Amino acid sequence: MIHRSTSRKIFEIVNYLLFILFCISIIFPFINAIAISLSSYDALEQGKVGLWPKQFTLESYKNLALSKQFLRTLLNTVFLTVVNTALVIVLSLAAGYAMSHKHLLGRGYLFIYLIIPMYFSGGLIPTYLLINGLGMNNTYWALILPAVVNIFYIIVFRNQINQLPRELMESAEIDGAGEARILFHIIVPLVLPMAMAFVVFSAVSYWNEWFGVLIYIRDRSMWTLQFQVRDILINSALVDSTTQKALAGQEPKVHPENLKMAALLLTILPIIAVYPFVQKYFIHGQLVGAVKG
Predict the structure, then answer these.
(1) What is the pLDDT of residues 260-280, one digit of tens each?
(2) Residue 84 has what pLDDT?
(3) Which of 25, 79, 91, 94 is the most exposed place for a label (fewest CB within 10 A)?
(4) CA of 232: how far to CAs of 39, 79, 219, 278, in Å?
(5) Position 292 confidence tier, pLDDT thresholds 50, 70, 90
(6) Which domains does the chain have, with CATH numbers?
(7) Model pLDDT for residues 2-31, shown as the tens digit of each residue
(8) What is the pLDDT of the chain when averaged over all its residues?
(9) For residue 55, how far is the Cα from the chain centroid?
(10) Cα–Cα distances in Å, from 15 out to 2, 8, 11, 101?
(11) Residue 228: is it exposed, middle or buried by C-beta count within 10 angstroms (0-12/13-18/19+)?
(12) Which residues cross the membrane (predicted)?
């Protein structure tokens, strides 16, 4: 049995206590949000809700489900998440493979060309002027095209492919395989764990997208779910007038806090549901930044 010193035991006790407090600080507000979203108008008005719902009701979720605007933003978010994630992974993988190819002329200069904007960007105003000048303002393209090039992903894919045995690609070339066949039938299976980790990172990032909508989008029908939730948190109401009128005259009443907490929970629910299935890729992704180039 390993002997532990008194100082070591004190350190472990303090460490465990800090982690317990940290977990409580995360879990309790989440439980409180669930309780608020499931409590009645009167219970919230009287301040009776703590960690358990009072006068259980699903009216807030019902009204969100019946809101055409909320459902439209959900569809927009799913569409943008799928399209942007697919584009950024495919383009980054293809660019990383091209930059690792021995036949690419000037790949060292191309690498420097990519590194510079990774550290020095034009900024928000030039980007907005570019998007506006290209006529993409208030279109889905403003939320798709600026996000499809991820230099970090390209560099990591390039480094990973450089570490693969060259004999694999050379033997495929001798057998007459083209570049696309080599990429998708040889390279992709070997870097799939890393690619899946980037899929997780990208999907979470695009699911939480709202700033691009704030800058480029004016049409409410093109809002994303996160921006819709932001509007609910600020205005304490759903945005479509039809639903607001229905809420104003209905019984039982729906408290603004009901809508806020229900909207927040519906926003994070898909991520919570998917995370257990992709956790291994997420953990693997913690190490991708340390890939030796």
Answers:
(1) 888 888 888 888 888 777 777
(2) 93
(3) 25
(4) 18, 21, 16, 30
(5) very low
(6) 58-293 (1.10.3720.10)
(7) 667 788 888 889 999 999 999 888 888 888
(8) 81
(9) 34
(10) 19, 10, 6, 48
(11) buried
(12) 16-38, 74-98, 110-134, 140-161, 182-207, 261-278
Q: Before 53, cis peptide (omega within 30)?
A: no
Q: Which residues of 144-173 are buried (b: 16+ CB within 10 A; e: fewer)?
A: beebeebeebbbbbbbbbeeeeeeebeebe
Taking the C-alpha atoms of residue 244 and residue 232, their distance in angstroms, rounded to an integer, is 12
d(CA 170, CA 182): 10
User: Which tokens in the block code for residue 108?
Assistant: 């060292």
Look-up: residue for tokens 């070997």? 190
Helix (H) or strand (E) holding 46: none
Chain-centroid distance, C-alpha 138 = 22
Task: Evaluate if residue 34 carries a pLDDT over 80.
Answer: yes
| 59: CB partners within 8 A, 6+ apart | 252, 254, 258
Q: Is 165 left (phi over 0), alpha (psi -120 to 50) or beta?
A: beta
pLDDT score for 86: 93
DSSP 31: H
